[in-house]
Fold:
Amino acid sequence: MAISFLRIDDRLIHGQMAASWIGSSPCDGIVVVDDDAAANEIQKKVLLSILPSVKTWVFSISEATEKLPKVIESQKQYYVVVRSASALNRLAGQIPQLLKARSKVNVGPLSKRADAIAVNKGQSIVPEEIPAFRQLAGLGFSIEFRLLPDTVAVSWESVAKKLAG
Structure:
C-alpha cells in the first residue's frame, strides 16, 4: 500500500498538517490533487514550498489519473490530499484501485461557508457536498472527520445521522 494517508482538506497543505499529521504515518512525499491549485502557478509554488523536507507534487485530477496508479504501485509511502469530497469522488471514479490502496479517508478543516452545516469543531459541509460523501461511503471508503491525530474522530455515519435528524 503506497498511500499511507488520504485526506480531504480545503486548505490542502498547511501548518497543522505539517506539525501534526506528518509523522503520524509514513510519508515519503505528498501528492496534492486539485484542479485550481495545479492551474495557478503562485498557489502551486506556495504548496511546493510549505514542507521543503518532503517531496511534494501538485496535479490536476486529469494528471493524477495518470500518475496515481504509479504512486499506488510504488514502494514508497505517500499522502494524497484533495480539497473536497467531490474531488475525491471524481478521483475514485477514475482510479478504482484507489479504494484498495487506502480505504480510510481523513477529513480535515472544511471552512465555514454560507449554508454550511457544522459537523465537528472546525469542520462544516455544504449541502452540495453531502451526495459526494454518501457516494464515497457507498464505494467502501471509511470516512472520519478529525482535525488532529490526537483528537476524537467523528465517523461519516454519525455525521449522516446528524444531517438526517
In short: Helices lie at 15-21, 35-39, 41-50, 61-73, 85-94, 97-101, 130-139, 156-164.
